[in-house]
Amino acid sequence: MTVVNGKTFTAAPPQDEFPNSVFGAIIGSLNGFERLERLSKLEFLDLEYNRFNNKSIVSSIGHLSSLKSLNLAYTGLESVTNIQGLSSLQNLVFLDLSLNNFSDSIISFLRIFPSLKSLNLAGNRLKSGIQGLSGLENLEFLDLSFNNFNKSIKPFLRIFPSLKSLNLAGNRLESGIQGLSKLSNLEFLDLSFNDIGNSTLSSIGDLSSLKELHLDGCGLRGTFDIQKLDALGNLKVLSLGGNRITKVVDSRDIKIIRNLSSLFLDDSNGDGRSSIQLELLGAYPFLKILSLKHNSFKAGIFAQGLCELKHLQKLDMSYNDLSGTLPLCLANLTSLQLLDLSFNYFIGNISLSPLGSLTSMHTLQLSSNLFRIPISLLPFFNHSKLKHLNCHENEIYADIDVPTLTPKFQLRTLDLSGQGHGGVFPKFFYYQHKLEYVDMSNIKMKGEFPHWLIRNNTKLYTLHLPNCSLSGPLQLPIHSHVYFSDLDISDNHFNGSIPTEIGVCFPSLNFLNLSGNGLTGSIP
What we know:
The protein is mainly beta and 524 residues long. It contains 7 helices and 35 strands. Among the domains are: 21-172, Ribonuclease Inhibitor (Leucine-rich repeat, LRR (right-handed beta-alpha superhelix), Alpha-Beta Horseshoe), CATH 3.80.10; 194-320, Ribonuclease Inhibitor (Leucine-rich repeat, LRR (right-handed beta-alpha superhelix)). InterPro entries: Leu-rich_rpt, Leu-rich_rpt_4, Leu-rich_rpt_typical-subtyp, LRR_dom_sf, RLP_Defense_Trigger.
């Protein structure tokens, strides 16, 4: 995370934040790389994910004295010797050396960059010596995740009083962390994937400026008393996934609940079998994102205040044990933009469900349930914002009477694969012009190959229609479609020959399955 020109970024700032910038994508040695030295006004240079055979290349960068942002992530660097040529870059504000192979010796070297505000050393071999960064008084964003600091980092956190963002995820930290309380300006903290346990909550509780807290997979067990974080009145995002929490204790009267906008409790079953107990979901009045996936929740979760979250925009309840029909109170969640109910045991006809009222949705995931879904998609015709619909592995059926209506949606991706008899090829497809991915596998339909579907959707790249009972000759669109790359029409009843112009029509085709048909003649 970094700040450039008054804007905050969690990774390298985008190119347009620097009028003079270069992005690199080079493998091997760079003959003529020294020509970069002529770019005397260059401020932004991104060379991440390159593998330099000649490490002396980096020394050429040292002549770019105007550089403010340098990204050398995952470039095969492994020692101070490789980057000594950077010592003249005294204007550096952003430096990313993550996913390399540096050891502790790199830390004291970095003190030569006094203007640094953002430093990313994630994914190296660091173990100790963090006190060597004490001279970087302007440092606001520090990422030390996925190293091996263990206990060695704890006493030295206080040397960074200006820090706004600290990522210590994936180290081998244990128990409480000393020095955190001194970071009074901290707004982002990630302690995920350590084994610090419940005792850490007391050391976090004084960080009154904190806006985002990640404690995923960090050994939290038993009852999680959210009131211990009550001093975090500015907290917006709380992520507690991958722990063994059995119960979340909360109250409508505490500050943290009133301001929280995102709550993640993924994979948090207390004993791996029974679901986590949530007392007052309705007590989070401004919650916009709620993720409860991969737990063992049953239908009772809806009675715990879930339907009271009228500001909710994203709800993920996938991979649970939810069953029965969808509760009608879901219609209250009119702000929902993304809803994921996949991999549960819901039943019922979608036409009679509250989903028809949720017209703000752009993404709806219903895969691997027991819903009955009309192939016309009539219940969603008023969903003008709907872009992605996944109904894989449900029962698709043909509507008896479908009124002549034009759907308001323009889908990008559609998956209706699974089982069912859909009657004639769905008419709503005639009104779609922005499709990119379509899968109707194993849905029995009447009709010929829908070449017009490819013609009308110029960015379509995947079309799967295997085992759909389609028949007739294989007619292709007239014009070339350069995005189209994946076609499966196996196990149908197509006849005649393979069109000779198939290579011209689909020049980017890399997957083609025509098996199980009645095609004759030669292969073009």
